[in-house]
Amino acid sequence: MNEEQQFKRLATKVKVRRWLMTAVIAIVVMVIGGGSFVGYTKMASQKASTALNKYFDITHEILAPNIQYSDQYLENTSFFGGTLVSHQYKEIEGYRETWSPERANYSWTRGAQLPDMLNSADSNQQRTALYDRETAHKIPMFFNLKTVSPNIKPTQELKKVAVVKGHVAEIALTFKQPVTYRQIQDKLPANLHAVWYWIGISGHSDATLVDNNYLGVQGSQTGKLNAAKYRYFHKMLLAAKDKEGGYGDTFAYAGRYAKSHATLAQAKFTGVIVTGNSEAFKALKEANWIAASSVGYFQARTAIK
Question: Where are the chain's structural domains?
Answer without folding.
Answer: 120-300
